[in-house]
Write a structure and sequence with these properties.
Layout lengths: L5 H10 L6 E6 L2 E7 L5 E11 L29 E9 L2 E7 L2 H10 L6 H5 L4 E10 L7 E4 L3 E7 L7 E10 L8 H4 L2 H16 L2 H13 E7 L7 E3 L9 E2 L10 E4 L8 H11 L6 E2 L1 E2 L2 E3 L3 E5 H26 L6 E4 L5 E6 L14 E4 L2 E4 L24 E2 L3
Antiparallel strand pairs: 1-2, 2-3, 3-9, 4-5, 4-22, 5-6, 6-7, 7-8, 8-9, 10-17, 10-18, 11-13, 12-13, 14-17, 15-16, 16-19, 20-21
Length: 404
């Protein structure tokens, strides 16, 4: 098993190369190959080429949707995959619960040294919980990479006049370091390889995927702060008698009379500033400094658009007082401005690795069954315990089904 996602990220370039991969089946537009896994076990690679994607985004890195968006498009029957987002760590990085994933069972039967009855693998609605993360412009500019504990998927635009032809590489790991081939299995591998390529082309061109891409494009909002070259912006302060505070009568009706500089001796990060500012106003917003696996520049952050829409009026009313306090503290006519919906700017060459922060997973009884984790349905109440909310907190998330 990969150590979080770091092993997969370090191995991503090798997934796109044919070096050390042994071909098991080759078709006109798809290849099935395998090799030993550097961190233990074996790797199976499905390489689909010349895949047509209609209505593809102008930016090829936007071809895959963020994992947390999957639960927002309803399916049509019980046989389809159901997604639930348990927790969002950052845009494009989420703890996902998946139910009734027939493709995982099929891979397990063919390649995973599966144990148990056929009823277990084909008919039981097993539930898996794992962390999924999207990395844009990785491993090469324009690439879109999705990583899960046992799998990695990379989509790359091909040089074609239409701009609508792509290559998809999907790699998953098995626990034992050998390719479980047999005469019966081998004769079906070409058909399986064709099926995989056709399935992917059907999914990315289906109405459900197009709906998810539309939701994904509008789910988040990038905020940028400008014009604070005289020092960090001001923050509401609890002690009006402090030597470092500035009292503003314009904030009396809001209960925001006293203001002070925000951490003047530390490096400024807008994500931290906005989080503290909104908490002082009584809001608990999800505010991030990382997006799609990349770190934003310090003067930008990203918020959930629907949450921001509900709190922005209160923010700007209080921020107007902040601007006056900033001019009083620093002199001059200029003060910080917050600009909405600008394009994100990222630190060059930096992709966030999951080992940079500790991830807490909900405690529950689980059964490890080779390549996936099954929840104990007797102990699972269907909904995770939600954290305690502050005044005027905004909650999100509901169970929906994604058609694949």
């Amino acid at each position: 098993m990969a150590e979080y996602h770091s092993d997969w990220l370090n191995f991503a370039a090798s997934c796109m190369s044919d070096v050390q991969w042994e071909v098991a089946a080759i078709r006109p537009d798809a290849v099935l190959s395998h090799r030993s896994c550097p961190w233990g076990g074996h790797l199976i690679r499905l390489d689909a080429k010349n895949v047509f994607i209609q209505n593809a985004s102008t930016d090829p890195a936007d071809i895959l949707v963020r994992p947390e968006v999957r639960e927002m498009t309803p399916g049509k029957s019980k046989a389809e995959i159901t997604w639930r987002c348990r927790e969002i760590y950052a845009p494009g990085d989420a703890l996902m619960e998946c139910t009734n994933c027939w493709s995982t069972r099929l891979f397990g039967v063919l390649f995973g040294h599966s144990l148990g009855s056929t009823r277990l693998h084909f008919f039981q609605e097993a539930t898996t919980v794992s962390r999924h993360a999207l990395y844009k412009d990785f491993p090469e500019p324009g690439d879109s990479t999705q990583v899960e504990t046992e799998t990695i998927g990379i989509v790359r635009r091909l040089p074609h006049p239409s701009g609508k032809r792509y290559r998809l590489v999907f790699v998953f790991s098995t626990p034992e370091d050998n390719f479980p081939g047999s005469s019966l299995c081998d004769q079906h591998l070409p058909a399986f390889t064709d099926m995989f390529r056709n399935m992917f082309e059907r999914v990315v061109n289906g109405p459900g995927f197009l709906d998810m891409r539309g939701i994904d494009a509008k789910m988040y909002l990038v905020l940028s702060m400008r014009a604070f070259n005289r020092g960090p912006p001001m923050i509401p302060h609890d002690n009006p008698c402090s030597e470092e505070s500035f009292n503003m009568s314009a904030g009396e009706h809001l209960g925001l009379v006293s203001w002070t500089r925000f951490k003047p001796d530390e490096k400024f990060y807008l994500s931290e500033y906005m989080r503290v500012f909104m908490e002082r106003l009584g809001y608990q917003l999800k505010i991030y400094g990382v997006m799609d696996g990349r770190k934003l520049v310090p003067y930008q952050c990203v918020v959930v658009r629907s949450e921001w829409d509900q709190s922005r009026a209160s923010f700007y009313e209080a921020f107007k007082v902040q601007k006056a306090a900033y001019r009083r503290a620093n002199g001059g006519p200029k003060s910080p401005n917050l600009i909405e919906d600008l394009a994100p700017h990222f630190l060059p060459g930096v992709h966030q690795r999951d080992t940079d922060s500790q991830i807490s997973t909900p405690k529950q009884h689980t059964t490890v069954r080779k390549t996936f984790v099954e929840l104990d349905e007797e102990n699972d109440m269907g909904k995770p315990k939600l954290p305690k909310q502050l005044k005027r907190s905004i909650s999100t998330g509901e169970v929906m089904t994604c058609f694949v």
